[in-house]
Every structure is written in C-alpha cells, then in structure tokens.
Design a protein that fits this description.
Layout: E1 2-6, H1 16-28, E2 33-36, H2 72-80, E3 87-90, E4 93-94, H3 100-113, E5 118-123, H4 128-133, H5 141-157, E6 161-164, E7 169-173, E8 187-190, H6 194-203, E9 206-208, H7 214-231, E10 239-248, E11 260-261, H8 263-276, E12 280-285, H9 291-305
Helix pairs in contact: 1-9, 2-3, 3-5, 6-7, 7-8
C-alpha cells in the first residue's frame, strides 16, 4: 500500500505556512504524495447536495467554510518548490469548468518543473452553482470532461494538435513544454459512480473513489475488470486508489466506519482495502483543528499505520 496525505488548501488552516509545514513533514515521514482539493468559486447559496455525503438524508452543502480556497494547481506548484521527492496530486480537478488548453499547459508545466511528480486526479464536478457562476454548462459535464481529457492527452503527446470539437474546436495548435512523465502524468478518474468506472477504462490510468467500504470497492473492482475485458485493457493498467477520512480513537468506535478507531483497527481496515484491490490510500486527516494536531496525526499515521 502507498499513502498520500491531503493538505488543507481550504478552510481555516489554509495558510502558506501550514501547507509547507505539513507537506515537508509528509516528505520526511516517507509519505508518497500530498494532495489538494479543487474549487474555483464558492456560491453564496446553493441547493446542490455533496454526492459523497454519507448521511441518510443529505442536505444542501454548507459552503461558507470553503470560502478560503487556494487554487489546486497553484498550491501544488508552491509545494513543489519547497519539497524534493513527494508526489503532487489533486483530488480532484474539476475538468469541465476550465479551458482545456489552459489545463493542459498548467499540468504539463507543473510536471516538467517538478521533474515528474504530478498525479492528475480529475472529475466532472458536482456543484451546479459553481458551473453557473463560471458560465459553464452543467448538464453535459460528462461529455465535456471526456473531450477535454482527450484534448489534454493530444496536446501532451503530439507536436501539432487539431481540435475539431464538437464541444471545443480551434485551429491546429502546438503546445510545449511536454510533461516530464511519458506519455503524460497518470490520470486518475475520481468518482464513485458507474460512469466514473467507465471513464477510467476509456481515458484513465487509475480510478479514485471517495470513502467507499472495502466490500463496495471489491464489487466495483470486479465491475472494473469486466469493463477492462470488454475494452481490451489489462486491469493492472488501472490503479485503484481511495480517498478516505482517517480518525484515531482511544477505543473502538461505536460505528464500523473504515479507517476510524485504534491503530490496530485502522491497520486491519487497510488490509481489507488491500484485499479488495486498493493500491493507494489518500488520507484526509480530521483529528484536531490546529496545524499541530494535523502534524501529530500525520506522524501517527507514519509510525502506527504505514509501519506494515
């Protein structure tokens, strides 16, 4: 199992000092990667429901705490300049709300300047009001994501790229620098849906769901293998990762939520995820409201979870 740690690029702890402190400590502790989240703008009011809300009756998302939100790729560039080894991931970049030529340029530049440390986690987005504010269609975001990713792949691998549409068209263009990683940084498709699985097989190098149980991952893994067989791809070509929330507790929690409990319980959960096919865990650290608490939790992860 490889591990990544989510950085606080939004909310009360989102400061330059905190981002660098946690990223550098993650690198020192042997963590494979650091990750940031992505939004461009926060609507003042929203009726959209966060699709990964585990409650029985999800309510519209409360977005006020997300007002302080550093841009994902800018934050990773900032972190890249202050680290030497740790990989740089985004979980996940909302593809359809941005011009694909700009996305391709920024991702390629970040990968070239960091000497090949980017993992490009990406998805279709969920916050309709954000799409509206950016004057971007919401209904066709899946098709737009597919086309924009294909444009990025073309720009990263070809000297001259034609952009015939149907959703984005332009005269033939050239784009350099090319990514350091060849043919381009790994593309991990975010999302828990069957559509995300299909997109991972069509266009991705990985599948990156959120907060699913080991049992659900195992069932989705089998579906992913079937999709790979139909598409002529080897399942081993697609990394299965998971972004999950980790909470240490002094005693066994009442709920059976994965990655919550004593270190022994969490290590057992990690083993269950590995048996279900997960190769990579990106951990949200949620114990404490200060940077000191996050660093302490990171150090516990390194010493008591990653030790196996």
């Amino acid at each position: 199992m490889r591990y990544g740690i989510a950085l606080p690029n939004y909310g009360a702890l989102a400061t330059p000092e905190n981002l660098l402190r946690l990223a550098r400590r993650a690198e020192d502790c042997g963590v494979d990667s650091v990750w940031v989240s992505d939004h461009v703008i926060m609507p003042d009011e929203a009726t959209s429901v966060y699709p990964y809300d585990p409650s029985a009756r999800p309510a519209p998302a409360l977005l006020q705490r997300l007002e302080q939100f550093y841009d994902a790729l800018t934050t990773l560039a900032f972190v890249a300049g202050a680290t030497t080894r740790v990989r740089l991931g985004v979980s996940v970049y909302v593809v359809p709300i941005r011009n694909p030529l700009l996305t391709a340029k920024i991702v390629a530049s970040l990968d070239a300047l960091s000497r090949g440390r980017v993992i490009f986690g990406c998805g279709v987005g969920w916050l309709r009001e954000e799409f509206d504010a950016l004057r971007t269609p919401f209904a066709d975001r899946g098709a737009r994501t597919d086309e924009y990713l294909q444009i990025c792949q073309a720009l990263w691998t070809r000297e001259v790229t034609s952009l015939p549409g149907p959703l984005y068209s332009a005269a033939a263009v050239r784009a350099r620098p090319k990514p350091y990683q060849q043919p381009y940084p790994p593309i991990w498709i975010g999302g828990n849906s069957d559509a995300a699985l299909r997109r991972a097989v069509r266009l991705g190098d990985g599948w990156h769901p959120i907060d699913l149980s080991p049992e659900t991952i195992a069932a989705k893994r089998d579906a992913l293998r079937d999709l790979c067989a139909a598409a002529g791809r080897e399942p081993a070509e697609i990394t299965i990762s998971l972004r999950g929330t980790l909470r240490f507790t002094a005693a066994q929690p009442q709920s059976h939520a994965p990655l919550a409990g004593t270190p022994e319980k969490i290590r057992a959960d990690v083993a269950a995820y590995a048996a279900a096919g997960v190769e990579y865990l990106v951990l949200n650290l949620r114990d404490g409201s200060t940077i000191d608490a996050l660093v302490a939790q990171l150090e516990r992860v390194a010493g008591e979870v990653m030790c196996d």
